[in-house]
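Title: Comparing notes on inverse folding

I've been comparing how different people in this forum approach sequence design from structure. To keep things fair, I'm posting one structure and asking everyone to reply with a full sequence. Here's the target:
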C-alpha cells in the first residue's frame, strides 16, 4: 500500500510540473496572435507608431531566443524527472533533485517572460499602458482555455 502511495505521489508531482510549464508558456507567450491576447493588443489595437513597432519587434526577436533556450532547459529538466521516476519508482533523492531543477527552470522562464512584458510596456505611451496592464492581468487570471 505504501508503495502505491509513493507511485501516486510521484505521478502527481510530475503532472504538476508539466502543468506548471504549460501554464507559463500559454499565459504570456507573445509570438503567436491566436495564442496571446497581449500580442493581439500590441499588434492590432494599441495604434503603435512606427518607432514603437520597431522597438517591440526587436524586443520580441530578442526574447524569442531566450525563451527557446529556457524552454529547452525546462524540457531537459522534465526529461531528467522522467528518467528519475523510471529509475527510482518512488519519491527518492533523484526525483526530488529533478523536481527542484524543473522548478528552477520554470522560475527562470517566468522571470524572463515578465522582464520581457515589462520591457514592452516601457515602449508604450501612457495612454496605452492601462489597456496593456489590463490585458496582462487578464492573461494571468483567466481560466484555462479548453
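Reply #1:
Here's my take.
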Amino acid at each position: 500500500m505504501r508503495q502505491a502511495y509513493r507511485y501516486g505521489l510521484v505521478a502527481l508531482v510530475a503532472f504538476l510540473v508539466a502543468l506548471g510549464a504549460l501554464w507559463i508558456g500559454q499565459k504570456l507567450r507573445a509570438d503567436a496572435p491566436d495564442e496571446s491576447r497581449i500580442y493581439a493588443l500590441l499588434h492590432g489595437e494599441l495604434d503603435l507608431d512606427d518607432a514603437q513597432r520597431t522597438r517591440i519587434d526587436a524586443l520580441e526577436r530578442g526574447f524569442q531566443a531566450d525563451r527557446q533556450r529556457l524552454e529547452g532547459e525546462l524540457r531537459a529538466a522534465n526529461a531528467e524527472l522522467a528518467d528519475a521516476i523510471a529509475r527510482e519508482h518512488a519519491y527518492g533523492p533523484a526525483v526530488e533533485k529533478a523536481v527542484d531543477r524543473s522548478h528552477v527552470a520554470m522560475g527562470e522562464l517566468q522571470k524572463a517572460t515578465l522582464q520581457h512584458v515589462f520591457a514592452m510596456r516601457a515602449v508604450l505611451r501612457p495612454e496605452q499602458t492601462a489597456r496593456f496592464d489590463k490585458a496582462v492581468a487578464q492573461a494571468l487570471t483567466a481560466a484555462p482555455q479548453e
